[in-house]
Write a structure and sequence with these properties.
single chain, 566 residues, alpha/beta, six-stranded parallel beta sheet, binds thiamine diphosphate, binds magnesium ion
């Protein structure tokens, strides 16, 4: 083989030629790492990446409606594929690029691999400012793509075509790293994308990236086993793959027992060390296998087990109570969740991200397989739902995908309904309309602010009606069902719980993306039980309700814990 053989390609052609030859392998299973490229073309990428994709149709191009949405689709796809496969996303320069920043943050926070290829301003600079260019009086070495730096796990700007020879392998190392993965951004100046270079043939040979199952330190593993064996009725928290977010720890008010210890099994050291834990930094599967071997013969006290079983049964009864509420005139969200859970195929995948639904689903959803519950609750990004649902359906086309979305999230981003229809990926979208933000409305009331700014109603005499206005408000002439229909979806409008059940049956046989629209009650809520969320309340206020909320907040703030010892 002639190592010196080269091929003249544009920088953009070289990227696509490289990406299509990248494979991953884990547990002996090999597959291409990229399923293709999402993109929206403009002057910043059409003649570069756009031309390369046209020339290499075997690297499939998917047209999206919104750049943020396409990154969400890529991230959801990667999550469904256990991070073993993802998409590249190409955008134009300027707003097309910055639209991807939110998607990048979501991917990085959720540790999901996505490759972002935003167009960038001219490297040769003579025609600057190009349309949509950010200028600076202090430097010419800046563009809006610098915004990607904090939200990317690897960031680079390719000012010369040959820089790909070192940049792309680094991009792949990060994308395929179980601990480091997230958004990788390669900013591509629009002129350099089109410039040719004699790339070595070797650069384009098939590469297989082995995805390791890292094993934890033996000493730490033995210590963990000793801790577990020594605990009579375990006061140990074993965190597997958790980021210990505020929802997980009730804003550090959970785990009040002074004896509490943490053992964290996590492939990312950042997470493994949280809560001053004994860190088992490694792949969860092999770490648990090794830990269980060391714990051979150990079992918890039978009373402890019985107690846990009783708590579980009591919880199941509570879920059943909420599933069978038949609220009128508008149904409650809990009973609608119950209907979706019970009437969807057991192999289905449910997706959600923001609003009051995530908290309710967390409590009420009965997951039936590991991918059944797809919750984006790292960034909790309104707008992820439908775009994410598309990515899931692309990754798992044989599974029904139920998108659970509130009216606020739907209004923020419903564009990928069109893409789902264009590509024949059927989504079942359950659109729960409560005329605004049920979640932030309840939060607002808990802070003494009476729902200010959370209802979708007309302002009255220049003021915002709060919840105190009750039904004495002027509603907006918005028709979300008609909106969905106008995008090409099959829409079923429901008024009652019975309509909703019938619609869930009907959508099993519809031929394309279908939207079940129903209004539901803004106030019937699922209890918080013992959970608490630290949302700071105004320290001084002219509102007595806020002063009262501040006093309640201060009492909880006082019991937030630091964990400073193993
Ligand atoms: C992009 C984005 N903007 C703002 C928020 C803050 N936020 C969280 S929930 C929510 C309201 C969601 O409304 P809707 O989708 O109707 O759900 P509901 O609360 O009514 O269940 C807002 C504004 C967010 N999570 N994401
Ligand atoms: Mg709503």
């Amino acid at each position: 083989m002639n190592e010196q053989a080269t091929k003249r390609l544009t920088m953009a052609q070289a990227i696509i030629a490289f990406l299509k030859n990248q494979y991953v392998e884990r547990d002996g299973r090999e597959q291409p790492f990229f399923a293709g490229c999402f993109g929206i073309f403009g002057h910043g990428n059409i003649a570069g990446i756009g031309q390369a994709l046209q020339q290499m149709p075997e690297f499939r191009y998917y047209q999206a409606r919104n750049e943020q949405a396409m990154v969400h689709s890529a991230a959801a796809y990667a999550k469904t594929k256990n991070r073993l496969q993802t998409f590249a996303c190409t955008s134009s320069v300027g707003p097309g690029a910055t639209n991807m920043v939110t998607g990048a943050a979501l991917a990085t926070i959720n540790r999901l691999p996505v490759l972002l290829l935003p167009g960038d301003i001219f490297a040769r600079r003579n025609v600057a400012p190009v349309l949509q260019q950010l200028e600076s009086e202090h430097t010419q070495d800046i563009s809006v793509n610098d915004c990607f730096k904090p939200v990317s796990r690897y960031w680079d700007r390719i000012m010369r075509p040959e820089q790909l020879l070192t940049a792309l392998p680094e991009a792949m190392r990060v994308l395929t790293s179980p601990a480091e993965t997230g958004a990788v951004t390669l900013a591509l100046p629009e002129d350099v994308q089109t410039e040719a270079y004699a790339y070595p043939d070797a650069f384009f040979r098939k590469r297989i990236w082995h995805i390791p199952r890292n094993r934890p330190d033996r000493h730490s593993l033995e210590q963990a086993a000793a801790w577990i064996r020594a605990s009579k009725q375990p006061l140990l928290v074993i965190g597997i793959g958790t980021r210990y977010s505020d929802f997980t720890t009730s804003s550090k008010t959970a785990f009040q027992n002074p004896e509490v210890h943490f053992i964290n099994i996590n492939v990312a050291p950042l997470d493994a060390y949280k809560q001053f834990a004994l860190p088992l930094a490694g792949d969860a599967k092999v770490t648990l296998e090794e830990l269980l071997t060391l714990l051979d013969g150990y079992s918890v006290d039978p009373n402890y087990r019985t107690n846990a079983e009783q708590l579980h049964t009591a919880w199941e009864e509570e879920v059943e109570r909420i599933y069978t509420i038949r609220n009128t005139p508008l149904p409650s969200q809990g009973e609608l969740i119950g209907a979706v859970n019970e009437l969807s195929d057991p192999s289905a995948i449910m997706v959600c991200a923001a609003g009051s639904l995530p908290g309710d689903l967390h409590k009420l959803w009965r997951a039936r397989h590991p991918k059944n519950y797809h919750m984006e609750y790292g960034y909790s990004c309104m707008g992820y739902e439908i775009a994410g649902g598309l990515g899931i359906k692309m990754a798992a086309p044989d599974h029904d995908v139920y998108v659970m979305v509130g009216d606020g999230s739907y209004l923020m981003m419903n564009s990928e309904i069109v893409t789902s229809i264009q590509e024949h990926y059927k989504l079942i979208i359950v659109l729960l309309d409560n005329s605004g933000f049920k979640s932030i409305g309840a939060l607002s009331r808990s802070l003494g602010q009476d729902g200010f700014g959370t209802r979708y109603v007309y302002p009255h005499n220049g003021r915002w009606p709060t919840d105190a206005a009750g039904a004495d408000v002027q509603t907006l002439p918005v028709d979300l069902a008609a909106n969905a229909r106008s995008l090409g979806a099959h829409v079923i409008e429901c008024k009652t719980y019975a309509d909703f059940v019938a619609a869930l049956n009907t959508v099993q046989t519809t031929d394309r993306t279908s939207v079940i629209y129903i209004q539901n009650d803004r106030y019937v809520a699922i209890p918080n039980y013992e959970g608490w969320w630290d949302v700071p309340v105004a320290e001084v206020s002219e509102m007595s309700s806020v002063q009262a909320a501040r006093a309640e907040w201060a009492a909880m703030r006082a019991v937030e814990r630091y964990f400073l010892e193993q």
